Amino acid sequence: MPVKSLMMDELGERALLLPDQLSEALTANDRVKFLLTLMQTAERRADRPDGPMPDLSAERRAAGLADATLDRSLADVRREADGALYLPGAAALRQAVLDGIAAMRSPLVLAGLPANEDFAAREAALSAALPSFDGDRVPAGVVDAITSAERARGDSLHILVMDLHKALNALQGELSEESIEGARVWRIDEADRSLVAAFMRGLNETAPLKFDHPGLGTTATRAAARLVIQNDIGTNDAHVLVIHVEGLAVTLTYTDIHVQRAAFFQSLFKPFGVRWDDTRTRQGEQVNEKENYYLCLGRYDAPDRASLERYLGFLGSRIVFLIDWNHTRKLLREFLRKPDGVRLLKWAAEQNIGHRGFLKLGGEQLLYEAIEFAQQTLRYGEKLHEALGAEQALDYLKFVLRVSTEGLLQGRSERFIRDEVKTELARRFHGAQQSLLSLASSHAALVFELATGLRDGLFAFSEGRANLDAAATRAQHWEQEADGLVTRVRSLVRRMHKPEVYSDLLHEADDVADALEEAAFVASFLPKFEMSPELLVPVGRLADLLVEGAQEMVKMFEAAGQVRRDGAREDFDDFLEAVDRLIRIEHETDKVEREARGLLLMQAPDFRVHQLVGTLARLLEEAADALSRTALKLRDHLVNDVMAG
């Protein structure tokens, strides 16, 4: 039977006492949770006495405790020889915790709820097992046991408090006198109504972003001088959000077992300048997810009533982004750098997009399907950001979250949304390859300039009118420009699937430029020696072949940019023809270079001329070899990886 009906049928006049007891029980919940936090902090202080002194005064006041001696008790804690914790006032703290739990159970007794029997049995068992804390000494291991939130370890006072709090929230909902924008409210003042409505407008604005996930139920009541708004967020017992409004001040108490999510939630309120005060960060400690829970307190002082309502609306609108946040953060590690996963979730919250739509469509499975569709089989252990590039991967995931959320909200079919996710990734992978080939074409154009400059310089020298020093200077300038393109290509290569393919390709193409620049430098020494013009005829033919080869390399990269598995056959044929011409040119340079060596052996006037002209011919032949290797590597990649898949 629903609680409200049960009360009407069985409680009679006792129901008049229930609202006050429920209000006291919720206040007791705040007190007990603070006292458990105090014990945990005392134990850490005893183990690290040289660390900064913790200050829990803000948390104490928020819990409604006026006793300032609780703050000073932390100064005298110590770890004793037998491992026990000495904590001044520990025996009184023990009793205060038990009294608080009894106060929390009181309205459940009054309401006659069947669940009270189980709570009573658990309370009795846990109380009986709790040591007495004689002499304010807490036996070793007791603090960890009573504050544990891990149900697998068995029951604890902390787990009992969480379960009682959940039952109190349910009872409060049944007692609600009316609904304001979906919030169940009771015993509020007239002035509270607009505040609850403001909070709920914000909550309802983004609530659709949770899709079919449970959570976001809200209750509100007045406890003494302050309005209390509670939201259940999701289904996690230790994930609690309580808002206290007193005058123009709003105090937000937030607990979470995941420190990263708590930090994320705090970061959302920077526009309002919320002051956060939490135990662990004030101590400067590293908090990990194995700890029981993470409690933080945020305070906002509004300058006026309108600002107060704006803040409450904003606060309500942010809660949905906590649901499944940590699950999403962890699965994003497979696709983004760790910091970028949090960046993505922060962006999604700021854009009112969220991540639940992405999860509803399959989360990581949605992305794996897209990777398979894009024909990009990642290497073992390789992440998407390593194949596509960190910023490109982050930008793609923004697209995925946006199209998932907007598509589902607009009622589009899941199949259509999945197709959008797949085709976008394929486009981005292909776009990265196109950018690489475009830069490679620009690099090839500079190689053509190097080859042409060297050929023209040699021709002019043969006619007695060349300044080969100037030609060498121009070659050095072009080679430096080529190096700049190489740097850009290397940056892009890191984003590509199979980056070793493009790295090798880049290495070979740059060898062409290096050999030609070195050849121009060597050629600048020709005017210093007397020699027969006939000795330079093979060198001139080699230079002609290099110009032709560089021109074919430009054509090859331009044709490669048009090659696709489903593209026109003519584009692939154009590419293969350019490759074939480059291979034939390389064979021809081998023949001419051998002719040059033979001629030098027969006619070189001395060793220096033989060395100079021979080195020049060898560098040109090496440039042709590098042209051929570049063509073959690009051909193998397009045939095996692009056309064959």
UniProtKB/TrEMBL annotation:
Native organism is: Parvibaculum sedimenti
Q: What is this protein called?
A: DUF47 family protein
Matching InterPro entries: PhoU-like_sf, Put_Phosphate_transp_reg
One Pfam family linked to the record: PhoU_div
Family per similarity comment:
Belongs to the UPF0111 family.
